[in-house]
Design a protein that fits this description.
The chain has helices spanning 2-15, 75-85, 98-103; strands spanning 24-28, 45-53, 61-62, 67-72, 89-91, 105-108, 114-120, 123-135, 138-150, 155-160. It is an alpha+beta fold. Strand 8 (123-135) and strand 9 (138-150) form a beta hairpin. Helix 1 (2-15) crosses helix 2.
Length: 169
């Protein structure tokens, strides 16, 4: 249960903007592990990518040092990511069990904005990465969200940029 709460917190915190952390809202999301059976086992897929803002140069902001998170591309995770990106912290701690942690995959973004999420089962995935940069003392950026369809034994290469601040349809 401790791991599930840690992962739930990572998803919510990663999705937040640079504004002060909000207190939990009265929005409750219910996680149904039965809907995620195909996402539990380790798979043979991999998502590799980069996440950055602006042009790919020294001035670009990257996801360096941040967690990149892959979640099943479902209604539950869409709601969680959208609410968190708007600064709302839905109450999910009581609603999740160990199964939640088994379907959320984490990776670290290296100093150049590269990441790799391995051992993914086939399916549709949301990949999220927080990216910020400073321009003239202003912080720009937000949560980049990319939707990926992954097949067995497939490696998908993605590039997340400014265009991915909007949620994919």
């Amino acid at each position: 249960m401790k791991k599930a709460l840690l992962v739930a917190s990572a998803v919510a915190v990663t999705a937040c903007s640079s504004t002060p952390k909000p207190s939990p809202q009265d929005i409750r999301l219910t996680f149904d592990p039965n809907a995620y059976v195909s996402y539990f086992p380790a798979g043979t897929g991999e998502i590799r990518g980069q996440a950055f803002l602006g042009q790919r140069d020294e001035a670009a902001g990257t996801c360096a040092g941040s967690k990149v998170i892959a979640t099943p591309a479902t209604r539950f995770f869409r709601q969680l990511i959208e609410l968190s990106a708007m600064g709302q912290m839905p109450l999910i701690g009581e609603a999740v069990g160990a199964e939640y942690a088994d379907v959320v995959r984490l990776s670290d973004c290296d100093p150049d904005g590269n990441f790799s999420i391995k051992a993914l089962p086939p399916g549709d995935w949301f990949v999220t990465a927080p990216v910020y940069r400073s321009v003239d003392k202003h912080v720009l950026g937000g949560l980049l969200v990319y939707k990926v369809r992954l097949h067995n034994k497939e490696t998908v290469q993605i590039v997340m940029t400014d265009r991915d601040i909007e949620f994919p349809h």
